[in-house]
Automatic annotation (TrEMBL):
Origin superkingdom: Eukaryota
Keywords: Signal
Keyword Hydrolase: no
Species in which this protein is naturally found: Takifugu rubripes (Japanese pufferfish)
Name of the protein in its database record: Notum, palmitoleoyl-protein carboxylesterase
Family: Belongs to the pectinacetylesterase family. Notum subfamily.
Length: 491
């Protein structure tokens, strides 16, 4: 694909050239020249160099061999991307910042010394908001509350992948994956106490990870992209400005902080069917955040909090918090988000979907569309799905012919063009100027059609009862919708 105009193979060749020339330069003029040269050779837009060891080779007889060996290694890397793909687990040094059960929180990291881009990705996975729901969560999904079952390494997929063919956007960035073990939409500030039994420290975990990454090179970063999926997508909205403030207050204002929120744009809409909050999955959005806000000791950003004194829980909702966010933030949201349907009690597991449910789902689609319309940078396909950026197929979904990695690239370019570097980068009023199209490089992508999976690039719908993946037509048939004159609703 011709994304950013440089194919992976070509960018690999560019890097090889740099690799071969750098040691020579380093010998004659140590330091800076290699750097300027690299900057000039860097492919435009997304792609960066692959991590290479640029330390000068000893001026000995084995120079040539060593260079050959490096070269071979790079070639191997370029052709098969077999470089160390795994992200490695690192527990936080500050052991007072913990998961729900008091075990140390941590992160997975794959460093990329040649890159000044840092991607911090917040994992998702619902939440719990009572002793009862948290006890149940502990029994069923312990890794979401405790670090003790975590593996030593993890592979990155989608936007976390180190392969250019899977991740043309940021494949060479420093990748940091933050496992979700605070069950609090990444908002909590409460240590474990005797009576509560659980800690909720999501917001402090992010803060501490950022702190500890500073000594690993984050202090010299150009861009920190705080991304998150699902509950982590909410975490981005609630934390991105705080991260920016944290870096600025420590004198790192050179680092541009940006947000990427995937499937974290929750609507406050009335449920389809009123559910009670003894169960997490049937508790409606308003009740859920009201209960959670107190239970987690949640911290929401000051600007939003000030506007909602006494009802601060409103600041968990995308349409409310987004206009108050200063850091440039990209919103990814399926028009028919499956988690939104779940908490609205649109029960699709019965095998049949009623006309009432169908209409409700479309009203959700319409409301999503209306509320994301004012976001400056948005990707909103008309699909029934949940989460996108860490899917291996994230490149294949398109809105108006543009994929998300491309749109992210356009977004990045638009931020560069504005030359927003320095303290107050990209602090535009995101509710005012919703579209400022860069020619042929769009970053405001909302599907026009508005019925379930009218976008031909939608991923298949995952059917829970059968565990089968289906395309939209199969799905609708299964749901008994043949009679519902689907075509009538296409407009
Ligand atoms: C550890 O984290 C806690 C909570 O954020 C903080 O209050 C404390 O100062 C940190 N300790 C160190 C040594 O940084
Ligand atoms: C953005 O502009 C709109 C319309 O002028 C205004 O109502 C809103 O308060 C502004 N938002 C921010 C965060 O300044
Ligand atoms: C961009 O910003 C830098 C400093 O932040 C400044 O030196 C440079 O002149 C600016 N460039 C343009 C084109 O405005
Ligand atoms: C929107 O952007 C245009 C061009 O950048 C600018 O002239 C205009 O003042 C902006 N509108 C508002 C309301 O800020």
């Amino acid at each position: 694909m011709s994304f950013s105009g440089v194919s992976p193979v070509r960018s690999c060749l560019l890097m090889l050239f740099i690799h071969m020339s750098a040691p020579v330069e380093a010998k004659t003029v140590p330091g800076a020249p290699a750097r300027t040269r690299r900057a000039r050779l860097q492919p435009p837009g997304g792609a960066e160099s692959i991590p290479l060891d640029l330390t000068p080779v000893k001026a000995k007889a084995d120079d040539f061999l060593a260079q050959l060996e490096n070269l071979a290694q790079s070639l191997y890397t370029c052709s098969s991307h077999k470089l160390d793909e795994d992200m490695r687990l690192q527990f936080l040094k500050n052991d007072s910042v913990t998961c729900n059960d008091g075990s140390p929180a941590g992160y997975y990291i794959r460093e990329s010394k040649s890159s000044k881009r840092w991607l911090l990705l917040l994992e998702g996975g619902w939440y719990c908001f009572s002793k009862h729901s948290c006890d149940y969560r502990m029994k069923t999904t312990r890794a979401l509350m405790s670090s003790s079952p975590w593996p030593q390494t993890r592979k990155g997929t989608g936007i976390l992948s180190p392969k250019p063919e899977e991740n043309p956007y940021w494949w060479n960035a420093n990748m940091v994956f933050l496992p979700y073990c605070s069950s609090d939409l990444w908002s909590g500030t409460k240590p474990k106490t005797e009576d509560s039994g659980y800690a909720f420290m999501g917001s402090l975990i992010i803060k501490e990870v950022v702190n500890e990454l500073l000594s690993k090179g984050l202090d010299k970063a150009k861009v920190l992209l705080l991304a998150g999926i699902s509950a982590g997508g909410v975490g981005v909205l609630v934390n991105v400005d705080r991260v920016e403030e944290q870096l600025r207050s420590q004198g790192h204002q050179g680092v541009q902080v940006r947000g990427l929120s995937d499937s974290g744009w929750i609507l406050q809409t009335e449920q389809y069917k009123q559910g009670d909050c003894t169960h997490v999955l049937s508790c409606g959005p308003n009740d859920m955040v009201k209960i959670g806000f107190r239970y987690w000791g949640a911290a929401v950003p000051e600007v939003c909090r000030q506007s909602y004194i006494g009802a601060e829980w409103n600041c968990f909702f995308g349409p409310i918090i987004y206009p108050t966010i200063k850091s440039p933030t990209f919103v990814v949201r399926w028009l028919f988000d499956q988690a939104q349907m779940t908490i609205s009690n649109v029960d699709m597991t019965g095998g049949v979907i009623t006309e009432g449910q169908w209409n409700y789902m479309h009203s959700i689609g319409q409301e999503t569309k209306t509320t994301v319309q004012h976001a400056l940078a948005v990707f909103a396909p008309a699909c029934l799905a949940h989460e996108l950026i860490t899917r291996t197929y994230w490149m294949s979904v398109q809105v108006g012919g543009t994929s998300l990695p491309k749109a992210l690239h356009c977004w990045e370019r638009s931020l560069q063009d504005k030359n927003g570097s320095g303290g107050n980068h990209g602090n535009y009023n995101q509710t005012n100027n919703r579209t400022r199209p860069v020619r042929s490089c769009p970053l405001h992508l909302v599907d026009h059609c508005l019925w379930l999976n009218c976008n031909p690039t939608c991923p298949d719908i995952y059917d829970q009862p059968t565990g089968r993946e289906m395309n939209a037509i199969q799905f609708l048939k299964q749901m008994g919708l043949k009679e519902l004159k689907i075509s009538k609703r296409q407009g």
